[in-house]
Amino acid sequence: MLKKKYKSLLWIVFFSLMTSLQMISAQTLPLQDTIIMVDAGHGGRDSGTYYGSILEKDINLTIAKQLEKVLTKQGAIVYMTRKRDIDLSSIYDSAKKRGDLYRRLLMIKDKNCDLYLSIHINWYDDTSLKGAEVLYNPINKDNKKIATFIMNRFRQDLESDRNIKITDLYMYKNTTIPGVLIECGYLSNFEERKKLQEIKYQKKLASTIAKGVVDYLKADKKIKYIM
Fold first, then answer.
1. CA–CA dist 175, 194 (Å, integer)
2. Could you give the count of Cα atoms lying within 13 Å of 40 in the half-sphere of its Cβ?
3. Phi, psi (5° rounding) for residue 50?
4. Distances (CA, A) of 73 to 17, 42, 68, 220
5. pTM of the predicted model as reported, rounded to 2 decimal places
6. Is 203 exposed, middle or buried (0-12, 13-18, 19+ CB in 10 A)?
7. 10-residue mean pLDDT series, the chain (227 residues)
């Protein structure tokens, strides 16, 4: 009889411990097993926008790498469309840009991603414009939600006064997997151009984007805890 009581007590302790470990895991790894594609825009022959020798493709890649680190630390399975200065077009593509974008789409679908985050830098003739912003295509009903949560974090953490926008660009209207285009700031703005080149600010951008992703997944009840 005493042995049965001890055995029951041990099972209670065991299940309590397992529950506690699961709660700790959810809090410390809020993106556990979420598959995310991080797309560093442009690359190779395609520099994106630029200011002198400052190229969008380079900044996109450094921010994307920082984002990969943050998401991975929080438990996500992260894939990158590129990890170096290349474009994804084939020698057989007559239209190199379209070929590059098409292969990015194939990578997102091939990895069966839960989410994709496309990293870019903005440019506008009015050099007073600044601030990170998020664009989405309504092809997937979750895209606006993702854009809203990340944009809210941009407002809170980076004091951006921009708004979410709809984009009709080829890449974003041709995949049904949830995801958004993230413009991390304006290279045309003097103040923001300086910040976008700083590793400290790049890390802050990555952290802010990750918070927005967690907010979205939590609200969508895909995870239970927020960081």
1. 34
2. 30
3. -155, 160
4. 23, 26, 9, 21
5. 0.86
6. middle
7. 52 42 57 97 97 98 98 98 95 89 96 97 98 98 98 98 97 97 98 98 98 94 49
